[in-house]
Amino acid sequence: MSVAVSCRGVGKVYASRTGDVEALSPVDLEIAAGEFVVLIGPSGCGKTTLLRILGGLQQASAGRMALLPGADGRQSVGFVFQAANLLPWLNVEQNVALPLRLQGRDTAARLARARTLCGQVGLAGFEQRWPRELSGGMQQRAAIARALADDPALLLMDEPFGALDALTRTRMNQELERLWLASGATVVLVTHSITEAVMLADRIVLMSPRPGRVQAIVDVKFPRPRRPALEGSVEFQAIASDLRRLLGEEA
Ligand SMILES: Nc1ncnc2c1ncn2[C@@H]1O[C@H](COP(=O)(O)OP(=O)(O)O)[C@@H](O)[C@H]1O
Ligand SMILES: [Mg+2]
Description:
Elements: E1 3-16, E2 19-32, E3 36-40, H1 47-54, E4 62-67, E5 77-80, H2 92-102, H3 107-120, H4 136-147, E6 154-158, H5 166-183, E7 186-190, H6 194-200, E8 203-207, E9 214-219, H7 234-246
Magnesium ion binds next to α1.
């Protein structure tokens, strides 16, 4: 497997009026091309910071981070946040096509791509709707479609399903796995949900309390696609309870 992302001694200190805040202590992490990595850890441990550094939205204070283009030359990065952040004055397909519009792709090509993506994320028939006409889950589907618009090599997701009800979340997890398998992208997803982590990850990176560092890495080797019923298995629950113990959340 070729390496897609490499972090060597990546640290982050925020300067604030009340003094410096060390958000990340040196993080070493290599992520393989096509891998699905889940970051989990206590609130404030630096998960969002690490994700933003991976996506180039923020500079590390120390160390080196490299994104290595895949064999197919794809290099762009897609982001999905907890809030869908759709532009209210654009309809669904215009929102999905926005990254392509910013790249100057012509209207016909980008709308064709947006319609394909809307179909893939289960929004067929909703292309002309306004964001306010969609449920939270549907808005998040549109945000995922937008993040996939220019076929990113790396998809970064920061608690993308945190605001959704449990049933919708389970369904979105399955759909995300399907989209990821079809796209070949490398995914790094932050979550607070142990179930979501075990359901989706090839590897779970558990971060320590702030300043965040890699506390443990847990391999999850269940075959794919994974069914929701997997959650009931002894093997799944064994990994989940290991994670709870590592997070200090023994039930
Ligand atoms: N712009 C900033 N200025 C100062 N401190 C920040 C800033 N952004 C985040 N922090 C602090 O850095 C730490 C890590 O934040 P964050 O990466 O958002 O954690 P997480 O996503 O794991 O909850 C927190 O203590 C947070 O308060
Ligand atoms: Mg965060």
